[in-house]
Design the sequence.
């Protein structure tokens, strides 16, 4: 659940196989167990189901220790009444040790798709009401979820640093041109640098298919009712995608300028893509996103002659929110400004 915008924790689908074998060691009193295997056939849809436990922990997208009424209302069928020990075997075709110091590994169950019985969140002021749940409880859940997310994000960052992977999180509102920017970027850079893409959308694999058409490997994460990617989704998608060492990993987040600002994925930079069709006041309307971003790309500048968009005012607004933010103006379709963007990427790859 996201108490920022009210989206519910529904079923997430990650392109992959029916089974995956994960072998993680975690320094907590209940390692988790879920068998998977890597197969390299046709992509199939994987569904992540969320459930409650009585362990007192809030695990990624399943809220442990929730009152009985909340569990019954949610319609979930598995509850654990024990201090459980889960372990999961984890077979990857790459060499890295999963002995890391975060507190837990959230349990993710890959199961056949079924009807979504989640609570209907998003009512009340600021999407902050859920049936049978107090505001205080919701705040506690959000704090716990963000804390756990940050632990997984730190683990992702360790992987990226160990494998010398430059991970970039592209964020924007829908229709800003992120996917077009990515495809045009990959056409220009993938012959020189190994690249991979994690695509985030609520539904469809359309964007991942557009990326794969460039010859670059991509995996689609469908968030269902969710409005953002989180660190666990990126972790699971990353292990299936298996990006090469010394490579560039683009993470295209769900189109949304609110919630992705609050979820660290382990990336080196968030990059806010803003099209000139959106209005120069977007940084002031959505300050958290622009405060969290290292770079703002002003896209579709080829349309400026037909619009009433003040580029200088947009940059001033972004710098008012984040004085350190860098700005690149470009047209992904026309090519203007793409050299500046590619130069920025090269500088980051060499950093």
Sequence:
């Amino acid at each position: 659940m996201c108490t920022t915008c009210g989206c519910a924790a529904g079923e997430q689908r990650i392109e992959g196989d029916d089974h995956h074998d994960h072998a993680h060691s975690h320094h907590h009193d209940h390692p988790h167990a879920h068998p998977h295997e890597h197969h390299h056939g046709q992509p199939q849809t994987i569904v992540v189901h969320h459930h409650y436990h009585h362990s007192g922990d809030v695990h990624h997208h399943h809220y442990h220790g929730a009152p009985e009424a909340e569990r019954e209302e949610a319609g979930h069928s598995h509850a654990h009444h024990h201090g459980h020990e889960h372990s999961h075997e984890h077979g990857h075709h790459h060499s890295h040790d999963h002995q890391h110091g975060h507190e837990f590994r959230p349990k993710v169950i890959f199961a056949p798709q079924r009807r979504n019985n989640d609570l209907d969140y998003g009512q009340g002021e600021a999407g902050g009401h859920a049936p049978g749940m107090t505001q205080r409880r919701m705040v506690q859940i959000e704090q716990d979820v963000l804390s756990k997310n940050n632990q997984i994000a730190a683990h992702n960052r360790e992987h990226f640093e160990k494998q010398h992977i430059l991970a970039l999180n592209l964020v924007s509102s829908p229709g800003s041109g992120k996917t077009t920017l990515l495809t045009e970027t990959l056409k220009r850079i993938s012959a020189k640098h190994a690249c991979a893409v994690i695509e985030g959308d609520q539904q469809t694999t359309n964007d991942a298919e557009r990326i794969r058409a460039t010859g670059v490997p991509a995996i689609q994460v469908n968030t269902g009712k969710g409005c953002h990617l989180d660190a666990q989704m990126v972790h699971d998608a990353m292990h299936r995608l298996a990006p090469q060492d010394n490579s560039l990993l683009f993470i295209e987040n769900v189109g949304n300028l609110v919630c992705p600002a609050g979820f660290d994925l382990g990336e080196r930079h968030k990059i806010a893509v803003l099209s000139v069709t959106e209005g120069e006041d977007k940084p002031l309307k959505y300050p958290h996103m622009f405060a969290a971003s290292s770079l703002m790309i002003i896209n579709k500048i080829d349309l400026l002659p037909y619009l009433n968009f003040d580029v200088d005012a947009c940059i001033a607004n972004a710098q008012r929110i984040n004085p350190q933010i860098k700005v690149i103006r470009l047209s992904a379709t026309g090519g203007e400004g793409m050299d500046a963007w590619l130069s920025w990427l090269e500088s980051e790859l060499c950093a």
In short: The longest helix spans residues 135-162. The first strand starts at residue 12 and ends at 16. The radius of gyration is 20 Å. Confidence is low (pLDDT under 50) at residues 19-128.
